[in-house]
């Protein structure tokens, strides 16, 4: 009998597939469907820092200034309320009553401001964990890298001092010293790292002279970026790793587990094929485990990491020497 169970962030999961934060996870109906199709956990659609700041200033305007600050910009006051905070808290509460899988709240943030107070309310609503989607775009040439990186540690320190439930950080690979940064982040006390987040990718409409989004969904060919870094760092970090981006089938899940991930997060494949793809991925993992005589994920998780692989140097290779130099 094959056991697909794993542990991520201290949460017991029935399998390694987590539905990642996206528009698919902003309704109770979708979360019920995800759970019914075998998802082991769900990360709710992210609240953005600006939304929480908007709510803080709205509260202030009603005369309750406790814990908030008054410097709100007009554009924030007009920010869409499609994912209103009260509705978000209600969604957490409703999900906990409706499904028996972990519900992970998500906040997309770029600073350690007063929005952090809202984390307490997320915990009180029953969320099993909080995922912080953090990305500080290093676009200001006057800011040194150390200044940008310090923001990550400030955010995590404040959150970890605010809540008792597990906290994870979903980060990018835009660091000059990525390996060092990831290891340092793992020492902060967080329970998980999600590698990596996906960004808004700008394109230009040359007829309308407008900036528009492109590459909204990941491709299976994007798997290699996270796979490389999961394999290189899974044995060096002090928290669990969840792999993200480019995971479109059971084979990709297996690869990330072999590299050392404890779980994976999927979204794009569900947009394209629906929640019914989850049981197909689980069947693929189960069939592979049976063929290789594995009874549990622990038996092969990390087997192909840098620490365990027979040819670990392959993960550090950056040039196509064999393919482009004529060497066979």
Description:
- It is a single chain.
- By secondary structure, the protein is α/β, with parallel strands linked by helices.
- It has one domain (6-324): Alpha-Beta Barrel (TIM Barrel).
- It is built from 12 helices and 13 strands.
- An 8-stranded parallel β-barrel has the order 3-4-6-7-8-9-12-13, surrounded by 7 helices.
- Helix 1 (28-36) links the parallel strand 3 (17-19) and strand 4.
- Helix 8 (223-233) runs parallel beside helix 9 and helix 9 packs across helix 11.
- The longest helix is centred in the middle third of the chain and has 16 residues, at 145-160.
- The chain is globular.
- The N and C termini lie far apart (43 Å).
Instruction: Could you tell me the CATH topology label.
Output: TIM Barrel
Q: Can you identify the CATH superfamily?
A: Aldolase class I
Largest sheet: 8 strands, parallel, barrel
Number of β-strand runs: 13
How far apart the termini lie comes to 43 Å
Based on the structure, what is the oligomeric state of the protein chains? single chain
- Please bin the fraction of helical residues: 25-40%
Order the strands across the largest sheet as they lie in space: 3-4-6-7-8-9-12-13
**The CATH C-level class name:** Alpha Beta
- Overall pLDDT, averaged? 88
SSE arrangement, N to C: EEEHEEHHHEHEHEHEEEHEHEHHH
**Structure class:** alpha/beta
The Cα radius of gyration reads 20 Å
Query: Helical region count?
Result: 12
CATH architecture: Alpha-Beta Barrel
The fraction of residues assigned to DSSP E strands is 15-25%
Query: How many structural domains can be distinguished in the coordinates?
Result: 1
Q: Name the shape in a single word.
A: globular
Low-confidence stretches: 64-83
């Amino acid at each position: 009998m094959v056991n697909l169970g794993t542990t991520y962030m201290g949460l017991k999961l029935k399998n390694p597939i987590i539905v990642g934060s996206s528009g698919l996870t902003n309704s109770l109906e979708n979360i019920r469907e995800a759970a019914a199709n075998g998802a082991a956990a769900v990360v709710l659609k992210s609240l953005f820092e600006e939304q929480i700041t908007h709510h803080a200033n709205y509260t202030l305007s009603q005369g309750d200034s406790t814990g908030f600050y008054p410097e709100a910009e007009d554009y924030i006051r007009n920010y869409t309320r499609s994912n209103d905070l009260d509705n978000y808290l209600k969604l957490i509460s409703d999900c906990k009553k409706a499904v028996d899988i972990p519900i992970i709240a998500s906040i997309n943030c770029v600073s350690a401001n007063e929005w952090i107070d809202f984390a307490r309310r997320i915990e009180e609503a029953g969320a099993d964990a909080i995922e912080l989607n953090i990305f500080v775009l290093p676009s200001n040439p006057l800011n040194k890298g150390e200044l940008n990186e310090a923001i990550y540690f400030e955010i995590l320190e404040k959150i970890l001092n605010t809540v008792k439930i597990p906290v994870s950080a979903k980060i990018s690979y835009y660091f000059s010293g990525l390996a060092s940064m990831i290891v340092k982040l793992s020492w902060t006390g967080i329970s998980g790292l999600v590698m990596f987040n996906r960004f808004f990718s700008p394109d230009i409409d040359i007829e309308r002279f407008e900036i528009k989004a492109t590459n909204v969904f990941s491709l299976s060919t994007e798997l290699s970026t996270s796979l490389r870094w999961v394999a290189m760092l899974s044995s060096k970090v002090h928290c669990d790793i969840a792999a993200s981006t480019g995971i479109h089938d059971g084979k990709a899940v297996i690869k990330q587990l072999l590299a050392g991930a404890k779980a994976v997060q999927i979204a794009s494949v569900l947009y394209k094929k629906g929640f019914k793809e989850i049981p197909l991925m689980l069947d693929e993992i189960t069939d592979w485990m049976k063929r290789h005589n594995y009874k549990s994920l622990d038996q092969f998780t990390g087997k192909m990491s840098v620490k365990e692989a027979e040819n670990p140097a392959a993960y550090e290779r950056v040039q196509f020497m064999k393919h482009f130099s004529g060497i066979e």
